[in-house]
Structure formats: structure tokens, C-alpha cells
Amino acid sequence: MSEYSRLFSGTNPTQVVLNPDTEDQLTCYGYRANRWKLLLFILLSFSSFGFLLLLMLWRPELECYIKRKKCHLRDADTILIQDHVKRWFVSQVETKGFDDHIGAPEKYNQFGESSDEDDPECCDTTRLKGPEVSLRYFDHQHVRYLWELGVRSFVQLRDLSHNTKCSTIMEKFQGLSKVEQAQKQVVYGANLIDVEVKSYWRLFIEEVMNPFYIFQIFSIVLWLMDDYYYYAACIFLISVISICISLHQIKKQSIALHDMVAVTEQTMEICLGQGRGYEKVPTSCLVPGDLIVLPQNGCTMTCDAVLVTGTCIVNESMLTGESVPVTKTPLTHQEDEEVYSPEIHKRHTLFSGTHIMQTRYYGSARVTAVVVRTGFRTAKGELVRSILFPKPVDFKFYRDAMKFIMFLGFIAALGMIYTVVMYVKDGIHPFKIVLRVLDVITIIVPAALPAAMTIGITYAQNRLKKESIYCISPPRINFGGRLDAFCFDKTGTLTEDGLDMMGTIPVHKSSFLPLQTDPSKLDHGPVLNAMATCHSLTIMEGELSGDPLDLIMFESTKWVLEEPGRDTSKFDTMMPTVVKPCTRDTFLPNQEQPPLEIGIIRQFTFSSNMQRMSVITRELGKEHMELYCKGAPEKIISLCVSSTVPTDIKEILQSYTLQGHRVIALAWRPLDPKLTWHQSQRISRDKVEKDMTFLGLIVMQNKLKPQTRPVIRKLIAANIRCVMITGDMIETAMSVARNCGMVSPQDKVIIVEAVPPDHNGPARVEYRHSEMPTDRDTENTLEYSRLEMETSNINFHFAINGKSLSVITKHLPDLLPRICVVGTVFARMKPDQKCQLIHKLQSLGYHVGMCGDGANDCEALKAAHVGISLSEAEASIAAPFTSSIPHIECVYTVIREGRAALTTSFACFKYMALYSFIQFVSVMILYSFEANLSDTQFLYIDLVITTSIAIFMGYTKPTLVLVPKRPPGSLVKLSNLLSITVHVLLVAIVQVGALLYLMAQKWYTRALPDEDAATQKCWESTTIFLVSSYLYISVAFCFSRGPPYRKPIYTNIPYLVTLVVLVSFSTMMLLLAPHPILDFFWIMPLWEKDFHFRLVLLAFPATHLVLCWIAEYTLTATKCVKKMTAVCKKKKMNPDSYKYIRNEIMMTDWPPIGQSMSGEEAFRQTVDQEGGEELKEEEESMHVGIIN
């Protein structure tokens, strides 16, 4: 699909879709200034006292609708942008001219390939002609979009990483002239990743403009006008403190991110091309296409560049989290026809932020690289962009909260109507009516609601921090409470980072020899030589360093490695790197025969796509060179002469991989004696990596981390589905899944294999049983059987590799949901496939978590609802959670805290809703008597009672054990709505009952209205205030549910003390209040009345507490309510949800084992055999069971 798509035909469109069908999709609309609309805007702004400006700040699209006129994109000075989640943004169209002395470039973007023109570097953009000497563009979230004449649309600015062949990079970009550099600097801008640190004043303005604080300001002004000075002053003080804390945190985070990405200004030597020599320029001036010279002693990369000459030793800990030197080699001519990709060709790519430790070159040649990406377009820039502009959290809980606030607004409207009717009827002054009407809004819609809902999250975040788990996206903590599926990487996450050498299995005359546990004792020959030479190890500061697997393999041979001369010179020259055995002859050589030394002439570095690496070597005294190769067994076998491969290779491989061991295959081939050293440096690997002799296998142990098995067992017991997504072999992954408990001992594992369509027919899929050994531990088997009965009735698991998954995704998409629902092991998965699988699970209704430890997992970590990185690499900081604990115990902790935080959020929301209704009922009752609560009474209710309860309610810690049932995720579910409705009726009945009891007293006299006073002492307000004070405490106590997600309420000592103090103080005011208390709270002297009256008043809230407890814990949990909830859910059951699909699978004999079938033939055939009507009836009954 093209990179842009017009929404309607015409040569001059008014809108366009950029990056269609991606997460970066933008729908752009053209607007330009209009003087008449601008005049109207000014008039509306003044007439609305600036409220229109606030609306435009909250809804940026209004600026275009009100001030500007829609127009063709070619004439637009403003672009209205809507992203894929329906958020709106406004960007200004900029025009930048080119200086006369440099002129305009012939093309904006000179890096794309085109099939339509003879010029191989012709881009998709139209050449500038005639008077067109300026650049027209807009920037959105640090991505630039250029206006292109040929397509009459904006198109994203491209660079060398887009649609450029490797041959073009090596042959064309030999250095840019100064004019070309200047032109490209205009187009691409500075090579900087500049994170803006806003001033406190600007942050203050932005924070105050938040709707929450605007509502607070409105409320404070209203209260001051109504003479509520104490209350207004306290709310103002609290708001100021809240703003200051928020500003400090935002500023601190901005500075931390700015310092993390900041790079000390340095210079880089660039080639000017065509023999013009070299020149040093600031790195901020680098542009795509520059040919840079890398310094001998290393540097920190500030751009993404592809190596074209020489070799580099790079520390990529920023990407991988491991300070392991990585060798980068130059592009080769065998890749000429390949389109360059930083991911596919990452072994040749130097990424921004990584540190070049050494450069190694051929003789006197320079180590050079071509700049491919700069600024925010680099890998590091994309990482920073993902932090600055995170994907919005779409949680049903928050959507329901907004719906409920709208409902409260509707209730407020009813209250306002009632107030107007009552006050007009009594002839109250219009100004006072307006105050009372507006006051209703501040009562029914509590301004503290957003803050109260985040208190539980804040406590959870602090507790996680104490556990060395850091969260950069606090709202995602609540997501942790809803997780029902969790995906794990294998190596470094479930298993230990390092490997242990188990031994080598040599091949002799096409037959395997016994396992040799000490490879150094092997006879000198190709097997030992392969282990000593086939690696990318190097010496750094006197220490051998490189890939851990290579280190373990080489050290097991007990050979030594020597590199000639200085580290940065004579690399790959006639004096190559040498390996030799560490024996007496090595140091005291026999003069009669040459010592055993092998020179490594050339390396073909490891490629994840090729799944192998190889070296060309020459042994001292031999006339020919040799090739040694190691890699994935299936790949090495395909490159070997079949007669050299043992016939029982499949059985031997399975015997080790099914035990969870890592297996590497070795191969060897003598090269043509006529092959010279110079030819060996230019020959392509596909010409030498063929017709090899199979040498044997290297077996390494990859042990489970001690915490893995217990955590997986607890997650399964909590009804959380566990899935493994790994790049390792499928057999090894299945073994680890069995050993760690993802696959229970009695369950079967079915391997799914899919083949793409060919001349024999359409794409087909086959299901076959694996030959995995089962756990014969009776105790474990019984325990897992119990867990399986509690969680799922499906007694088999799918295992599939990335290749088969791609075939199913592309050719058999209807089968993909079932694969995802039953799949437990996904092996040989590429980074993009991991991310795609996460998205597919989410589309099926799963709340998905992901835990990984490497840069390969970054995209999946960001895509998951809860992504936990075990790596401290900079590339992993974009994950919502980062754990310093290097094992998956953090997963269990995050889920426990998530469930507790979500439960707390629900409790706080329900409490704040009831608090609003209690006060609303109180005020409506008092309005009927032309009375109201006093300033200090509001102060006591809102600040002393409500604020203290909201603060300490969320302090309750999570339980230590996860239960199978998850906390509810919807506020508007039937049980919640019924609970709130019952509680509202109870508080209304109690307050009205107390008032009626007051009016029944012989001494009662109704207060006369006083229009000159905002409030007045009266028996009505005294009774309502004293009784309602208990109601706030009662509902808070009943909503503070402990188990199964939080510890009991008595463990929350601060909260318990708060409740006791509040009850004691309220009781003192009712029974024994001294005069100062009565005067301060404007309470009538109750002590003058009989004690019986006060005791009966106390009985009203006591009765409410009992009824409230019954309503919360008994009424809403009855079978009738549960059945009604299940029926409502069944009606909403989505056929595409994982529950529906899982239920469908359980009622059939699918999958057909041992059959190769296309599409959904097997599944549909089984369904048809079951019978239509009978199946539907069974589905309906099963759905209710699943929901419950």
C-alpha cells in the first residue's frame, strides 16, 4: 500500500490519509486563515469571557472550525490532524527558503528507489522546477511531512533507511559536497534529539488550564461569592500545593529524559566527495548521505550509519542492556540487490547512542560509514518519541468513570431545576438563586474525584518502587489487575542468561560418537578447529570479550587467541587473528615442525535471518584455506552434503532439545587451493557456505531460573494464561514450557505446521503430536490436574514457529484466532512477530502482559497492556515497567499490586459518588427549608472526613496470594449500579427519617428565612449535618473491602485510626459538644434538649451502617443478581472473543491430528458433525458457565 491515500478524488484534495493502516496513521485536513471567521472568534471570545479560548485549548480542532476555513492542502497554512485513536492535533505549515548561493535541491528526498524512471536514485517526490525554490512542510511529534508537487499531497520525509538498495549506498554516497550538505540541512534540520525542558511558568500555565483546576477555580470563586471563606481558602491552598507537587514531578522527569539523551557536542570528520578531501563538522550538522570517518579511539554515535569500510567493535548496551562488545562489519557486494533495512542489516549498522570502542581497518585505509538517519528518525530518536508521546491508555474503567460523571451532571441538572422552582416559588432574590443553582454543580460533581481515583495507583507505585520495580505509566498499574494472559520471553527471562557447556557430539563416518563433555580432549581435527575459530571474539583491554555463547565454546577448547599489532591497526591484513592450543609446544615450539596455529582470514558475522555465522581460516603449513560454519541445526544441515549427515540426526536433536538444551551444529569445507587472500576478502558467503561436511553438535545447558517454576504455577492457579514467545528452537521452547509448568504433565502438545501455497495447491496446515517427555512426578501431576480443572477444560497446547505463524496469518487468517487461543509455545519468533501476536491476543479480548529482557522485546513490551522489562538498557525504558529484579517474581508482584490498585480505585470511585449523593440529598433537603450547611460544616465534611478517608483508603496492601477470579473492570456493570442505587436510597431514607423525627418533636420550630445571611443556625441544618457526618464514614467502611484482593481493613492502621477518630469526634458533637465546638460549626445547642432525642438520632446512622453492610456484601452478591449479570453478558458475547472461541473448541474434536488440510476445513467439518441446533444450545449454557 502506498504511504499516503487520498480520501476523495480530485487533483487538489482537502484531506489525506498518511501512513494508512498503521499505528502512525494520520488523517490530515487543510485549513487557512479567514478574516471573517477571525472576527467572529474575537467577538465570541469576549462575549464568553475567555471560555471559548479554554474550549479551544482542550479541543484543538475547534480552533480550525471557528477561526479558519477548510481549503485544498496546497493552499493550507494549518493542518488539522486526527490520529488512529481519534485524538486531534493542529500543526502549522512552515515554508523554508533556500539561500541563493546553495540553490534548491533537484529533489527533496534523494534516497528512494523508483521503478518508473531510469535514474536508480529517483525518489517518489517530484523534482523542483521553475520558481519553486522553497520547502513547504509541517512537523508532527518530531516527524516531518513534506509537500510534494507531483502527488499534490504531504508525504513523510524519508531517508536512506527507506527503499534504498545496498549497492546505492556503497557506490553513490562517497561524500556530499558543501552545497548538497547545506540543501539537506534545510530539508532534514539539525541532527539533534532535543527534549524540551519547559520553564516552571509555562508548566504552571499548562497545568492550571487543566479542566480539573478550572473547575476548582470556578468553585472557589463561587464559594467566595457565597461567603464560604474558610472552605474556599482551604481548597485554594490544597490546589496550590497539588500544582506545585505536579510541576516539580513533571520538571524532574523532563530534566531526567533531557539528560539521558543529551550528547556532548563533538565533531566528526566527513568526506566532501570527488577528491575534495575531508573536513571536520559538528555532529549536529550531519545529514543522511554524509560519509563519515570514524575515529580510531572510538566515539558515541549521534546518528544511525551503515559501515562501508573497516570494522568496528561496538558496545550496544543502550540497545541490549549487556555490555558485550559486538563486531560490526561493512556492507558487502553480495547484498547489492537487497533493499537496506537497519533491522535486517543491523550487523552492518551503527546505531545512535551506542559507543564505538575501537575501529579496525585495512592497512592505512579509513573506517567509514554512510549516515542513514539523523535526529528523531534514528533508533534512539524513535525511542525518545515513544516516551514523549506514549500510546494512550484505553481502559474500560476510565471510560465508565467519564460516563458516570456525565450521569452525575444529569442529576445536577435535575437538582438545579428543583432549586430554581423552590426558590422562585418562595420569592428568593435572583442573585441568591443563581448562587444556589451553581452550588449544586460543585456538590454533585466532586472536584476531587480524579485525584481520589489515583490515590490507590500512587500507593501501588510507591510499593513497587520499594520492590525495585519502576513504572513510567502509572495508569497501567490498574491494567495489571485485569490481566488474563501473560507472555514471556525465554532466554534471560525464564532461563538463566548464561549457558553451560554440556559437551560436543562429533560425527565420524556419518555416525555420531558419544558425547564428549570436555571438548579440549578432542583429537586435533575439524571439530576442534571449528570450535576454536568460528566466533567473533576479540581482545579488549587485555580481556577476551564477545558473545557469551562464543566465549563458552572457545574457552572449552582451552586454546588462546592472539591479535597482531595495536588493536586499531593491521586488522584483516596479511597478519590475521590467530588461535592456537595452550600447550607446552605453543610456548616452546619444536623447530622441526611448525607450531599448530590457525589464522582467521575473514568472518561472515552471525545473522538472525541466516541463522548462522562462518569464518575462512588458514592453518599454518597448509596450502589451502578452510571454511568453518556454526548455526541452527536445521539451517546447517540444509547446507551440508547429505551423505555426511547422520541418518539419526532428527532423533539425536530431539533427545537434547526436548530436555531444554541449546544445540548448535558445526560444519566444515576445504576451499579451492587457488583461492587467494584478496579473493577471500571479496567472495560472497553463499559461494562458500555450501556443500559442507557435517561435523557434529555442540550441546549447551540453559537452566531455568529458580523463581520461574513457582511463579508460573501461581499464575496458572490465578487463572492467568501463560504463553512463551521466543526466538529459540521449538523443541527447546516446548521443553522449557513443560519444565516451568506452562504445560502441565498430563497435557498434550500439538505442533502446528503450515506451508504456503504452491503449484500443488493452496496453503495447508498440519497438526501432529510432539514427542515430549512427561513429568512422572505424581505429586506435581495431581497438583497441575487440579489447576487445569479450575482454569480450562482444554487439555492440549499448540506449539508453532514463526514461519508457520506467518503462513497462517497471511493465507489462513480465519484459523489464526484459534491458534492464538490454544497456543502456548511460539518459537523462532522475530521481534515484529512478537508485537503482532500481542496485538492479536488483545483483539481477542485478552488483557495481555509481556515480560522480556532484551531489545528484541521492546516493541512487544510497549504493545502489551502491561510490559515489564528485566533489562536496564536505555531501549527498554519505553516499557511501562522496568524491574531491577532479574527474574519473573516481579510479574507476580505487579499483578498483585494491580488488583489491589484497581479494587481501591473502584472503592474510591464508589465512595466519592456516594459522598456526592449524600451531600446532594442534604443540600436539597435544606434548600426546601431555605437553609444550607454552614461554611465550617462543608469544611468538616469535605476536608476532614472525605479527604482523610480518600487518602488512607488506598493504603491497604495487596494480598500475598492471587485468586482465580479477577476484580471487576466495569463501573457500569449491574452489580455496581445496583449497589450504588441501594446506597443512595438508604442515605436518602436515613436523612429524611432523621428530619421527620426532628419535626415530630414538640419543641421544634421551623427557622425563618433570612435573605441577608448566606447561612443561619437552625435545627434542620444541625440535624442533617450531624446525621450525614456518620453516613460518609459508614459507606467508606463498607466500601473498604479487603480479601480477596487486598488485606483486611484492620491491617491498614492509619485508615482504621482515621475512622475511629472521625466517629469519636462526630459522636462528641452529637452528645457532648462544648460551646466552642457548637459555635464553630454553627450547631444548635443539642444539650439543652433531652438525651433521648440525641440517642435516637445516633440510632439512625447506626441502623444505616447495618443496612449498608447488608446491601454491599449480601444483596448485590445474591444468585439472582449474578444470574442477571450473566444473562446480560451473554447477550453481549462477542463471537470474536477468546471465551467464545475457547468454548467452541471445547465442544468439538478439533484439531484433526495427523491430517493436512487447508483453511478451516477440519474445524468446520467437525462442527457440522456435532449438529447445528444442539451445538447452539450447548454454547448458550457454556457461555453462562464461562462468565461465572
Automatic annotation (TrEMBL):
Listed transmembrane segments: 38-58, 230-250, 404-424, 436-460, 908-927, 939-956, 977-999, 1019-1040, 1052-1073, 1093-1115
According to the entry, every stretch annotated as the P-type ATPase A domain falls at: 274-387
Q: Principal localization?
A: membrane
Protein's cellular compartments: Membrane
Name the Gene Ontology biological process terms. Answer: intracellular calcium ion homeostasis
The reaction(s) catalysed by this protein are: ATP + H2O = ADP + phosphate + H(+)
The record's annotation in CDD domains points to:
P-type_ATPase_cation (cd07542)
Q: Which domain of life is it from?
A: Eukaryota
InterPro entries (UniProt xref)? ATPase_P-typ_cation-transptr_N, ATPase_P-typ_cyto_dom_N, ATPase_P-typ_P_site, ATPase_P-typ_TM_dom_sf, ATPase_P-typ_transduc_dom_A_sf, ATPase_P-type_domA, HAD-like_sf, HAD_sf
- Any one of the GO CC terms: late endosome membrane
Task: Enumerate the UniProt keywords alphabetically.
Answer: ATP-binding, Magnesium, Membrane, Metal-binding, Nucleotide-binding, Phosphoprotein, Translocase, Transmembrane, Transmembrane helix
Database matches in Gene3D superfamilies: Calcium-transporting ATPase, cytoplasmic domain N, Calcium-transporting ATPase, cytoplasmic transduction domain A, Calcium-transporting ATPase, transmembrane domain, HAD superfamily/HAD-like
Q: Which residues form the Cation-transporting P-type ATPase N-terminal domain?
A: 168-223
Q: What EC designation does it have?
A: 7.2.2.-
What membrane topology does this protein have?
Multi-pass membrane protein
Q: Which GO terms describe its molecular function?
A: ATP binding; ATP hydrolysis activity; ATPase-coupled monoatomic cation transmembrane transporter activity; metal ion binding; P-type ion transporter activity; polyamine transmembrane transporter activity
All copies of domain P5B-type ATPase N-terminal, residue ranges: 23-147
UniProt feature coiled coil, ranges? none
Q: What is one Pfam family matched by this protein?
A: Cation_ATPase_N
Similarity-based family: Belongs to the cation transport ATPase (P-type) (TC 3.A.3) family. Type V subfamily.
* Protein name listed in UniProt: Cation-transporting ATPase
Q: Which organism is it from?
A: Mizuhopecten yessoensis (Japanese scallop)
Please spell out the taxonomic lineage of the organism that makes this protein.
Eukaryota, Metazoa, Spiralia, Lophotrochozoa, Mollusca
